[in-house]
Inverse folding.
């Protein structure tokens, strides 16, 4: 196998990197790919709890780098989804426990063992970021439709492109009703500002919070719009780059329908 | 809902237009943030070009990006010691001859 390494990054914290990593990873595995999701947020690990695998951690990524264990020993197998593995972060170290060369070195083994390796990047653009992007073939940059998050995404896209890593944009936490009334940037506005290709649009969805509470992958929920959006993102990353982007819509009200009929709506 | 409709009817948009404008301005400046390495490299290349035509004092050369309200300027300041003639350009050793320093401050351009 010669797996592909995709880093999920954002610059700004709390925009949905970990949620996206867990969801896209689960969706890729459900499509039959062998997937490792790697928590690169050393010292602030979260991917394990989001995936509901926190009780099964034995080894972590720092142990692999230090030669304390093999990749296969540290990779926790998800029991609900075949072919999905988590490589957790160490909670007791800090970002300096790793360096980009370490990651380059173990990336060879990771590529051999998996089809897709998703790196969950920490917030910021310092050491933790450098480690997470070190071996990446491509990047998914996550932002929300807010000024600070978009600005930080621009910075990260610039840093990635300087390293020769192509990135695509995932806009998360879209609130269609706000977009409709002109109080939230639309995906088109964000694309205009950042001039970058989209990989997908995910709306703000209470189901994300609910499924995170129980540690159950959101893509397993057929009725979650965010879950379905993450599934389509996984398909775009997995050989179907041209799958049409679906724009989240709020349930149409009378006035909006009326407005769009007479040419004022979108 | 009615207010949405009214807003659209009268062409008044919500706060997102302000957000977009502010972002576009902010990013223009963010993207101008040039790394020191890049500036050094550019300086070396510019010096190489100028040196084909003028004898300059390399130690006194200054390259800066300055910002004003609505434009950014690339400022290059270099004392010119003397001009090179065509023949002299062909023979670089003549460039060692010291002449009287002259301030040259012409390369003010709108940054791209
Ligand atoms: N589409 C969504 N709808 C609703 N809530 C969401 C959505 N995406 C993420 N969240 C929530 O937002 C919070 C932050 O998400 P997450 O932890 O994935 O962000 P992050 O970018 O990994 O943060 P950090 O920078 O701290 O690592 C979480 O509580 C998560 O459940
Ligand atoms: Mg996270």
């Amino acid at each position: 196998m010669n797996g592909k390494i995709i880093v999920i990054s954002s610059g700004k914290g709390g925009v949905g990197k970990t949620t996206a990593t867990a969801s896209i990873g689960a969706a890729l595995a459900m499509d039959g790919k062998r997937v490792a999701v790697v928590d690169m947020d050393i010292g602030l690990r979260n991917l394990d709890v989001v995936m509901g695998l926190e009780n099964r951690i034995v080894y972590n990524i720092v142990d692999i780098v230090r030669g304390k264990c093999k990749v296969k020993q540290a990779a926790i197998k998800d029991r609900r989804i075949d072919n999905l593995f988590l490589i957790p972060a160490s909670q007791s170290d800090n970002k300096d426990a790793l360096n980009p060369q370490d990651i380059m070195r173990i990336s060879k083994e990771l590529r051999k063992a998996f089809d897709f390796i998703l790196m969950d990047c920490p917030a910021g653009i310092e050491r933790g970021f450098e480690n997470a992007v070190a071996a990446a073939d491509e990047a998914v940059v996550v932002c929300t439709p807010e000024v600070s998050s978009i600005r930080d995404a621009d910075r990260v896209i610039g840093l990635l492109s300087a390293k020769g890593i192509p990135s695509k944009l995932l806009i998360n936490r879209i609130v269609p009703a706000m977009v409709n009334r002109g109080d939230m940037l639309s995906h088109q506005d964000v694309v205009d500002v950042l001039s970058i290709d989209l990989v997908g649009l995910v709306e703000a969805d209470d189901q994300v919070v609910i499924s995170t509470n129980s540690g159950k992958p959101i893509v397993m929920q057929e009725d979650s719009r965010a879950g379905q959006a993450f599934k389509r993102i996984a398909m775009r990353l997995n050989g179907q780059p041209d799958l049409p982007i679906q724009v989240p819509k709020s349930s149409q009200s009378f006035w909006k329908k009326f407005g769009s009929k007479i040419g004022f709506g979108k | 809902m009615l207010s949405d409709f009214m807003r659209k009817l009268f062409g008044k948009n919500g706060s997102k237009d302000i957000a977009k404008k502010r972002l576009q301005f902010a990013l223009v400046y963010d993207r101008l943030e040039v790394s020191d390495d890049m500036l050094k490299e550019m300086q070396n290349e510019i010096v190489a070009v100028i040196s084909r035509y003028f004898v300059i004092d390399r130690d006194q050369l200054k390259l800066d990006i300055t910002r004003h309200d609505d434009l950014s300027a690339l400022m290059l300041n270099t004392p010119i010691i003397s001009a090179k003639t065509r023949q002299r350009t062909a023979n670089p050793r003549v460039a060692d001859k010291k002449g009287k320093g002259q301030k040259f401050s012409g390369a003010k351009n709108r940054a791209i």
Q: What stands out?
A: Chain B touches chain A through 21 residues (CB under 8 Å).
